[in-house]
Amino acid sequence: MDNKTxxxxxxxLHEEEYEQAIARLNDLLDEIGTNEQHPLYHLLDTLGxxxxxxxxxxxxxxxxxxxxx
Length: 69
Prior knowledge:
Elements: H1 15-32, H2 41-58
C-alpha cells in the first residue's frame, strides 16, 4: 500500500454510516466474490465483521421459541 492509500476502520455509529457500509460491502462482493486469494478479501471480511457488530446491537434477533405440534 502506498502513502496515498489509507484505509481507516471504525465502528458504525448511525444508520447512514450503516447504509454506506452495506453499499461498500456489496461493491466488494461484486468484485471479489468468494475469492479468498483476492488482495481485497481481508478488507471485505473486516467490513463484514464491523457491519455484523452494528446489526447485533441495532437489529437483535428476538429470542423466540416455537410450539411443537
